[in-house]
């Protein structure tokens, strides 16, 4: 991609209402533009990152056995009346009336709709277990939309819903999502800690929030330090028996403020391991039994032929919120430092003299070789001065910068810089390309 033909509207200064660094950098790097409170347009660079994050989330859901579909953003109010949530949900729900005076709503979540789909088709325990997910825009009319995409009103969520014959089956489904989430966030370079979360009126202990520690996080959290450094289990696990992996983590203390028990924390955790911090909720998994299947009559015939209400769980990931969380975790004074797996481009190719034929030829050669190897390259072929080009590259956080200029070429070298460390290497063009592919 040639920068001269791209659309990358960067800003020198962040608007003063952007309070936290991720919001400031997302605006300055031209990732998003606010169109209304909590409602954003995704500019080309931001969209590339969003799609990468979405794809990692999707791959790990599929690996854990979930099946993708896509439900609409608009839902009928009557469906929500079946569960009793139409009236209970309150002012966070955006309610809409169409030309026929039918009541609709912009979905804040999809338990009712997925239960409706399930009950229409699934009639036997033999079709279980089943886990269906989608990645779709949600709307919640948040009282205080803020921090950019971190607390938007319109936001992208991955939500999965599991269906099982009994609680034991639902627990296995829950464990699969638990492990999938650990792997998902690790692939994005994040340390997300599963913490006991409030299950509300349903009770039980099967709800965890996945929290990324950050000073700007909105949640107060308490956990054993050892959990933060524990590596993700990876893909090579026995997906049919994950209990020991889950137990290893849930046996260590970790709770959000609503669930915090100071005396249990002290009894369970050595003083040196006690961590009190702020955190960002990037995911939330939940087992809720028959809360929706009972009122909505989602039943299957069990092995004995008798109809039973299915046991369900739901599993959310804040896909758009993750951009903010990743930037909070990975930036410096010059800008964003994208982890390789989510970077919008792999390499920023910087031409110091686009008007010099030998420099242009070397850049074209580098571009075609990198692109042929499947690398996404942003080629800065503009006539901006070098300082401005370096500043833009640092700001937008491309993991590698490959700089080609007349002086270096005369000596047979180009410069390769790693954004994360600032390390710079003088290499021949061949060596530089070989390192990048
Ligand atoms: P919060 O406590 O931050 O309000 P929540 O508990 O209401 O979030 P859930 O219903 O658990 O959210 O939704 C699943 C995930 O969707 C959350 O873990 C979070 O990552 C994301 N999410 C929720 N609300 C928003 C929002 N307003 N903007 C962006 N992402 C959100
Ligand atoms: Mg909320
Ligand atoms: Mg929450
Ligand atoms: Mg939650």
UniProtKB/TrEMBL annotation:
Family: Belongs to the class-II aminoacyl-tRNA synthetase family. ProS type 2 subfamily.
Species in which this protein is naturally found: Brevundimonas balnearis
EC top class named in words: ligase
Residue intervals passing through the bilayer: none
Subunit text: Homodimer.
GO molecular function terms listed in the Swiss-Prot or TrEMBL record: proline-tRNA ligase activity
UniProt keyword ATP-binding, yes or no: yes
Record key words, sorted: Aminoacyl-tRNA synthetase, ATP-binding, Cytoplasm, Ligase, Nucleotide-binding, Protein biosynthesis
EC number: 6.1.1.15
HAMAP family reported in the protein's UniProt record: Pro_tRNA_synth_type2
Role, per record: Catalyzes the attachment of proline to tRNA(Pro) in a two-step reaction: proline is first activated by ATP to form Pro-AMP and then transferred to the acceptor end of tRNA(Pro).
A matching Pfam family: HGTP_anticodon
Catalytic activity of the protein: tRNA(Pro) + L-proline + ATP = L-prolyl-tRNA(Pro) + AMP + diphosphate
Keyword ATP-binding: yes
Entry protein name: Proline--tRNA ligase
InterPro entries reported in the protein's UniProt record: aa-tRNA-synt_IIb, aa-tRNA-synth_II, aa-tRNA-synth_II/BPL/LPL, Anticodon-bd, Anticodon-bd_dom_sf, Pro-tRNA-ligase_IIa, Pro-tRNA-synth_IIa_bac-type, Pro-tRNA_synthetase
Domain Aminoacyl-transfer RNA synthetases class-II family profile: 38-339
